[in-house]
Amino acid sequence: MIRIKQALFLIFGITSFIIFYIGFLNFLTTQDNEMGLIILIFSGIVSSGTFFATFYIANHLTKPIESLAKRMKEFSENNFISKNSLDDKGISELTALHKNFEDMAQKVGNTLEKEKQLNLKLKEMDKRKTEFMSMISHELKTPIMPIMGYIQLLKKQELMGNLNEKQLDALNEISIASEKLQKLIQDVLMAQKIDLGKLSINKEIVDSKDLLEKTFKAFNPICESKNIDLKMSLGQTSSVYSDSDRISQIFSNLISNAMSFVPKQKGIIELGTKDDNEHITFFVRDNGVGIAKEQQKNIFKKFYQVDTSSTRKKEGSGLGLTICEGIVKTLGGKIWLKSSENKGTTFFFNLPKAKIQVDKIHP
Ligand SMILES: Nc1ncnc2c1ncn2[C@@H]1O[C@H](COP(=O)(O)OP(=O)(O)O)[C@@H](O)[C@H]1O
Ligand SMILES: [Mg+2]
User: Fold this and answer.
1) Predicted local distance difference test score (pLDDT) of residue 362
2) Which of 219, 321, 322, 325 most suits a substitution to test ligand 1, by most atoms within 8 Å of the C-beta?
3) I want to staple 303 with a disulfide (CB 3.0 to 4.6 A). Which of 168, 181, 297, 318 is the partner?
4) Is the CB of 287 inside a 6 Å radius of any atom of ligand 1?
């Protein structure tokens, strides 16, 4: 890269040399010695004038530009600029450029400072919110245990005495509601653990084929009971160095969602794996209602639900996919989806292959 100063000296240095050389050549070759001398003196004056003018221009042009570049660099690194050391006598456009940059830097600096303060406040609020939620969910977890325990006891009529049909119906309602409450509390606690980076992970070599077959076996009965056709598509299978319980948790969330959105008749859910060089990808595909494009970008956000109307048919907390994303990220992978409305949705998640991890352990 060439600098302005060097370019100017190169161009005008050569020009002044040529002018002087022509004058000198003319002096050597001319018959008219007096005229030759005048031209030589003239070319000498012009070439040295050009040289000094170049020196002057180069200094006045490059100094402010170099100073501006330095201050820009300083600002990008520290969000701060030192005082302008240039006087006002230079090139007016460049002085104006400095002034405008200073004004702009001042404004950007102020905005960044405000944003920093706001971020600190938000972080503090977020921390308090997490602490509050943690406290609430722990407090809820404690009483739910005896409630669930006594429901089970009441159901064992030989121990607690016989219940009539109406009482049994009521007990069933209480039982269903308590299970939902328990699930909600578990989800909130789980989401918090992920937020705080406290999710426990037990990694081992997991065979993707075994894992998929186990998941299929676990969910096939409930799918059959709902007339949903559960399929399995085994691509190239492989091993992942990961936590099988956590992966099952992801599958459980994704399959439960799919079960809620497939049609009542001819519902199809397909579980599968695909393979690339570094990752193994799992997917859960359904032929359900699909998710609109504008909803897709929000789908992994905490408490986000597509249908928020009070007449909403599907129940849920909007935490399922947040938890899936949190687990996948903790396991070193990523999760994404493809969906088209009224056709269906496929959720994919990938995990690093075991080989990479094993290589790290036994280099
Ligand atoms: N397979 C799917 N098909 C259509 N919509 C889905 C599917 N999975 C998730 N969704 C939408 O994404 C939203 C968020 O899902 P999730 O985080 O699991 O929360 P929840 O199931 O508790 O509502 C759901 O409310 C639902 O509208
Ligand atoms: Mg869900």
Assistant:
1) 47
2) 321
3) 318
4) no
